[in-house]
Amino acid sequence: ATPTSIMVGTGKAAELGVLFRSGAALEGLQGVQVVALDKTGTLTKGRPELTDLHATDAFDPDTVLRLVAAAEASSEHPIARAIVDAAHARGLAVPAAEQFEAVPGFGLEARVQGRPVQVGADRYMRRLGLNPDAFRADAERLGDEGRTPLYAAIDGQLAAIIAVADPIKDGSADAVRALHAQGLQVAMITGDHARTANAIARQLGIDTVLAEVLPGGKSDAVRDLQARGQRVAFVGDGINDAPALAQADVGLAIGTGTDVAVETADVILMSGDLRGVPNAVALSRATLRNIR
Ligand code: ADP
Ligand code: MG
């Protein structure tokens, strides 16, 4: 590629809100066969809302929500804000937690008014020696609706199933359609529940789903896709997306995402609108066509 055509290409891209960090990124993007995207905050808004809470007979739902919100108040996870907001919306007084510890990829553990509280995925309950299967039918239904099922344990007992729903961003479905029209495969990589991830992938027409990926596992997921002999672009926004952005043949970050994702990426999408991804691919192809 000539320096001039690369400069023209990156200039046009910038007008469309796509920042190529290097000429190599502009050249690299036209060679990818798979675009893998993070789900939360990338394909979805990253602003989940609490939609469901079913307590076991031994617990009162408002008590569960109050204790769980107290536990989540110290968490930075998007799920935490959904739960705290829901407690406030119900007019519940949320006490301060005495102890708090995040368990990345699983959930969190806290002590509230002397009571142990754990909140997280089904695999977290199992790790605690609790069986979430009492809520199995609920969890399957919620997952199939694209909601994320979570569980609360209080006093060492399974207390409730909770669900949050994170709306799909405007532009995500169009972006997937445009990538397909460009002949690319589209994959989703997420730590979320498999049924939830599959339901959202179905709504978006995504081909491949890698779900329940632990933090740190996203770069392995990218490597697995590359091991099929394909060149992979990865699109993400979060701290735990940085290794996958680095592993990918081309890493694209949402400009409003976390600093570490933006710093690691080869391409930055200034707006959160994923139509920037097929736009970037089109520009990369056009630039390289002009050169040849
Ligand atoms: P993702 O970024 O895809 O949500 P994470 O690794 O952050 O992946 O979380 C994976 C899963 O762990 C979540 O879907 C949820 O089930 C559980 N989890 C993580 N943090 C929390 C939290 N603060 N409260 C409840 N559940 C959590
Ligand atoms: Mg994310």
From TrEMBL:
Q: List the subcellular locations.
A: Cell membrane
What family classification does the UniProt entry report for this protein? Belongs to the cation transport ATPase (P-type) (TC 3.A.3) family. Type IB subfamily.
- Supply the name of the protein: P-type Cu(+) transporter
The organism named in the record is Deinococcus maricopensis (strain DSM 21211 / LMG 22137 / NRRL B-23946 / LB-34)
The part of the entire sequence present here spans 471 to 762 of 838
